[in-house]
Amino acid sequence: MNVFHIVGARPNFMKVAPVLNALKERKSVAQTLIHTGQHYDVNMSDVFFQQLGIPAPDVNLAVGSGSHAKQTAEIMTRLEPVLLERKPDLVLVYGDVNSTVATALVCAKLEIRLGHVEAGLRSFDRSMPEEINRLVTDQLADLLFTPSADGDENLRREGIAAEKIVRVGNVMIDSLVRLLPAALAASRDGLPARYALVTLHRPANVDDSARLRGILESLLEVNRDLAVIFPAHPRTRKRIADFGLQAGQLRVLDPLPYLDFLALQARATVVITDSGGIQEEATYLHVPCLTVRENTERPITVTMGTNVLVGRDAAKLRAELQKVLAGQAKKGTVPPLWDGHTGERIADVVVRQPPVRKAV
Ligand code: UD1
Predict the structure, then answer these.
(1) Which pTM was predicted?
(2) Residue 190 near residue 267, CB atoms below 8 Å
(3) Ligand 1 pocket test target in 61, 201, 207, 254 with most atoms within 8 Å of CB
(4) Helix or strand holding residue 282 (H, E)
C-alpha cells in the first residue's frame, strides 16, 4: 500500500514525524513524503526535518509564499501531476494550513482516499484562514483522525459519518514526548531564571498596526516584571519593521529550532501566544499559557489544561500574569490519549484500509 504524506508548514513537521515512524514498522506500507514548500526558510523547515529525524522529502513542490489563493492554487497545480503519476492508495494531510486544504481539494477531484490528521478542531471563527481550511478538509476526507472528543462532536454536527471518525489523540504530543529529554539536556546558560516566552503570528494580531502596537505595549509592560523572550515568526518581524514599531527591551530572536523552543517552553514561567499547537504543548508541560485570541479551536486546553484566553484585553493579560507571578496560575491535567502513542494508533488504522484507490 502506497501512503503519501503531504506537509508544507512548520506546525505540521512535528505531526508527520510520529506517523512516518510508526508506519515504517509496517511491512505492507511504502511511504512517500511530499513537501509543498509553503515554509522554505532553513529555520522554518530544514532544521525541523533534521531534529525530528524526518527523511528528506521525495518531492519538493517549492511553492513559496503568496496570497492565500495564489499559494493554494500553486500547491494544487504542482501536486496534481505528481499524484496522477505516482498513484497513492491513501494520502495523509495534517493540521489546518494552506498545504492541507490544497491537497484535500486535489485528492477529492482525483478520487484518491484522503486521511486528515488533527480533524474536527473548530474555533467557530471563519475570519481565521485556518478555520476555512479545517472545514473544507474535513468535508472532503475519507478518514478523520481526531485528537479529542470535542473534535468528534464537531464532525458529527457537520454531518460526517461516524464510521469515518477515529479518535487517536494528539499526534504532536508524540514528538514532544520523544524529544523532551534531548531538549532538556541542553544547557540553560544565559537564560533568565524566570521569563515569559512569547510567540505571535496570527494575521488578526500582526497584520493590523494598531493591534500589533497594542500587543507590543502590553509585552513591554510584562517585561518590567518578567523578562520577555520572543522568537519572532518572519511574518511578525516583517510587520514590526513595516509599521515602524519598536520592540524595545524585548528579547526578539529568530524562529527557533524545535528542540531549542521546546526547552525554552518547558522552563518558562508563562507562555504568551496566539499559536494553536503551543496551547497544547503548554498544557502537556503544565506551563501556564495566556492565549492572545478571543477563541480557540483547542477548547480542551482551556477546560482541562493550563490555557487561559485573554483575547484583546490588556487588563486581563495583566491580571492573569499577576496570578502567575503570585504562584496562583491555573493548574491543568493532560487530556486522555495525549500519551506519545498517537502515531501508532494512526498506523493501526491505516494498515486496515483497503489498498485500492477510490477511482479506477
Ligand atoms: C502558516 C499557517 C498557520 C500556521 C503557521 C505557522 C496557513 C493559512 N497558515 O501561517 O496556520 O500556524 O504557518 O508558522 O497556512 N515566511 C518566510 N519564510 C518562511 C515562511 C513564511 O519568510 O519559511 C513569511 C513570508 O513573508 C510569508 C509569511 O511568512 O508571506 C506568511 O507565511 P505563510 O505560510 O503564508 O503563513 P504563516 O503566517 O506562516
Answers:
(1) 0.96
(2) no
(3) 201
(4) helix 276-285
Q: Find, among 340, 339, 331, the residue nearest to 307 by Cα.
A: 331
pLDDT digits (tens, 9 = 90+) for 1-22: 999 999 999 999 999 999 999 9
The rounded mean pLDDT for the chain is: 96
Q: Are the C-beta atoms of 276 and 300 separated by less than 8 Å?
A: no
For residue 304, with 0-12 CB atoms within 10 Å meaning exposed, 13-18 middle and 19 or more buried, which class applies? middle
In contact, 31 and 3? CB cutoff 8 Å: yes
Say which residue the cell 520572543 belongs to: 230
Residue labelled with grid coordinates 504543548: 281
For 348, phi and psi rounded to 5 degrees?
-60, -40
Predicted confidence (pLDDT) at residue 295 exceeds the cutoff of 80: yes
Position in ligand 1 atom list of the atom nearest CA 238: 26
Please state, in angstroms and rounded to a whole number, the distance separating the CA atoms of residues 128 and 163: 28
Can you give the pLDDT at residue 356?
A: 60
- Let me know: does 174 contact 155? Beta carbons within 8 Å: no
β-bridge partners, 145: 117, 166
Residues in the ligand 1 pocket, defined by CB under 6 Å: 9-11, 38-41, 44, 65, 71, 96-98, 129-130, 201, 233-235, 238
Alpha-carbon gap, residue 188 to 69, rounded angstroms = 43
